[in-house]
Amino acid sequence: MTEEQTKIDLGAYMNQSIRNIMAKAYKNMLSNPREAKFAYRMQTLFQKSEKRRKKMQETEGLEVPPFLISSISTTCNLHCKGCYARSNGIAEDRDANRKETLSGEQWKDIFTEAADMGINFSLIAGGEPLMRKDILEHIAEVKDMIFPVFTNGTLIGPSYMEFFKKHLNMVPIISIEGTALGTDERRGMGVFKRAMQSMEMLKEEDLFFGTSITVTTENYRYVTSPEFIDKLRSYGCKIVFYVEYVPTEAGTEHLAFGDEHVTEMESLMAARRNAHADIIFLSFPGDEKALGGCLASGRGFFHIGPDGSAEPCPFSPFSDSNVATMGVRKALQSPLFRKIRAAKALGWEHTGGCTLFEHREEIEKMVV
Ligand code: SF4
Fold it and tell me: Residues 106-110: what's their mean pLDDT?
């Protein structure tokens, strides 16, 4: 990637994206007065946070990303094919091999500090986050943050419905693969039907929720088609995350995007944004060329592992710092993150979804 391509006012770009998302979310929530009030409060807070992040950049030279990704659970009730969390040791069945996990209190402290720094979003992942209600209940108390909770949707019942009704900052994002066949084929028989039941319950309560779809070279045209998005809208989905498949499992490289798929995906999403203006569409990692490179290592976000380890990204599980012991501010300046940014590794050439995954050997060598 040329020097010129990397020159983008990423802060302004991401602030505008957050404003657009929240404006659309607010419109979507008007039918539910409690949610509308919540969205309005968050919009006001985000304006203050933009200023706070800018001030830290100007006074301390500290780049504060607008969001985090946090994996809180090391367990999961499913065994999906190509699960990155299982292949890089986040999710584990055997107790003996499972990583230590932070307590709910520790996560609450981390997010309280993050919110004070002007970080108002953390995607919550795992393993399956709904296996750790003890942690989710603590996280929900950090009211200045919104937590999209990426779940397989099979554990939502009366108790979690009460939880999501009570805590509007906890936004369920239910993972599917597109069709019932595709979902059950990858995630297990009956999972699609169970995920749809969860969507129905959330829709019944007029709660704001969405879906996350792993996009591959095999399903991307279907999952961006008007028919499919109409279906999602009828299920009550208000936000769609497209997550590019990263071939963590050998022999699945053909499912990962090439540059031509990334370009086509961006134009398909633009068409959906025009035709389905009521739905929020986000892609991860998105059009890195437009963003001047990958957003990992604190440039746009960073990943916190179940034990508090500060990692560039969920697909780059390397770390030399721990957020629970150092805090968010210090972890942002970790030697590894600084080396990655100094090496301009976020702009390194790569095919498919993830720069750092493709260059994992070089990144691993940077860890002291
Ligand atoms: S639900 Fe998520 S964490 Fe669990 S096996 Fe499937 S992809 Fe992995």
Answer: 98
- Ligand 1 center to residue 213 CA distance, Å? 12
Name the closest-CA residue to atom 7, ligand 1. 83
pLDDT digits (tens, 9 = 90+) for 291-333: 777 889 999 999 999 999 999 999 899 999 999 999 999 999 9
Helix or strand run (H / E) with residue 328? helix 328-332
| Whole-number Å distance between alpha carbons of 315 and 162 | 33
Q: Domain locations in the chain?
A: 63-366
Q: Is 79 in the pocket of ligand 1 (CB under 6 A)?
A: yes
Report whether residue 347 contacts ligand 1, using a CB cutoff of 6 Å.
no
155 versus 256: which is more confidently predicted? Answer: 155
Q: 141 CB contacts (<8 Å, ≥6 apart)? A: 108
Candidates 267, 286, 296; CA nearest to 356 is: 296
Closest ligand 1 atom, CA of 126? 3
If we measure between CA atoms, which residue out of 124, 161, 113, 176 comes closest to residue 146?
Answer: 124
Whether residue 205 is predicted with pLDDT greater than 90 in this model: the reply is yes
- Does 314 contact ligand 1 (Cβ within 6 A)? no
Q: Cβ(229)–Cβ(279) under 8 Å?
A: yes
**CA 311/CA 63 separation, integer angstroms:** 16
Q: Could you tell me the pTM of the whole model? A: 0.93
Which of 231, 237, 217, 205 lies closest to 35 in space, CA to CA? 205
- Mean predicted lDDT score pLDDT of the chain: 91
Q: Which atom of ligand 1 is nearest to the CA of 187?
A: 6
Q: 290: CA distance to ligand 1 center in Å?
A: 30
Pick the CATH number of 63-366 from 3.40.190.10, 2.40.50.140, 2.40.128.20, 3.20.20.70: 3.20.20.70
User: Could you give the dihedral angle defined by the CA atoms of residues 311, 312, 316 and 319, in that order, rounded to the nearest 10 degrees?
Assistant: -30
**90 touches ligand 1 (CB under 6 Å):** no
80 touches ligand 1 (CB under 6 Å): yes
- What are the pLDDT digits (tens) for 247-264? 888 888 899 888 888 889
